[in-house]
Amino acid sequence: MPQPEQLISGTAMQRKIVHVDMDAFYASVEQRDDPHLRGKPVVVAWKGKRSVVCAASYEARQFGIRSAMPAISAERLCPEAIFVPPDFTRYKAASQAVREIFQQHTDAIEPLSLDEAYLDVTENKSNLPTATLVAKTIRRQIWEQLNLTASAGVAPNKFLAKIASDWKKPNGQFVIQPHEVQAFLLPLPVGRIPGVGRVTESRMAQVGIKTVGDIYAMEMFTLEEHFGRYGSRLYELARGIDHNPVVSNRVRKQISAEDTFPDDLPLEECEVHIRRLAEKVWAASRENARGAKTVGLKLKTKEFISLTRNLSLTIPVSSCEELATIGLALCRRVDLGPRQLFRLVGVGLSNFQSGAEIASPLFSCEDDVDANNN
Length: 374
What we know:
Elements lengths: L3 H4 L2 H4 L3 E6 L2 H9 L8 E3 L10 E2 L1 H4 L9 H7 L4 E3 L3 H16 L5 E5 L2 E5 L10 H16 L3 E6 L2 H8 L7 E3 L5 H5 L12 H9 L5 H5 L3 H8 L1 H9 L16 E13 L4 H18 L2 E11 L4 E7 L7 H13 L8 E13 L21
């Protein structure tokens, strides 16, 4: 039986990583700010045929409503759901307030989006004795100061902390100690690995992989034969190895988001995902307060072949609707025939300009009630 020190390198064992994930963030902000919404099924989305769900409160999730679902489907699942248009100005303000709480404990903060971040608390500014106590304190401060709940995962590296934060959602906390990694990780179904969707999970099942322990039992070259370069990553993750550090204060050269579909889709069915991703990328670009002149589209076929298309503009993209429109236009430049299926789509912005170079946007995402959402 492998020992814990075989699963995690000595360097990674020295780290204390916290992954904080706000609970149903956009919907929770809406419920906090409007008492009439509390305890009710709230869907953050514009109504309309092209709209998709940004976020759903836990009351709405009981009806099967999920992020990225077409808004019209959400209406069918829960006719009494209350639809609230996204207000990213308020979400950004709440996110900044959460960030300020993080900064009381560490400067090593790597935001992933408005509602989640990695924190390296190996050494913390609050002089708390354990990472577990740091996470507990942060969650308590978020509740007491902002009236919002957050879940947290504590572990020796980012990969494990990400899994742990989802373990006791909502408003929960889970800790993976270094000596517990083997017992925790190996029995997990492979779907628990971040980035492994249903399609990849199905491909794994075809070669006899159902749990992380099944991956652990395979040689690296065998995994690479089946999954290419991702196979070597799986080999390490199955051993609890993740050397990626928490990277803070990084000027991002590109902002992107992508979706791995539960089932492979033809190109024409990717539109709703492109619009949702455009909303997510637009919100992140507004947080950085910079304009971007290049829009990128990424597609991955069911055969794991990656395709990219890019368009550079003379002035920065001015709205999320423009971003979505360009993304869809780039999608139409992909011509592999109507029978080709895709497992992933991504949207990105790059070629960012400094503040002096940015033209004033004509309108923002939250002003455009016909735009489609995150």
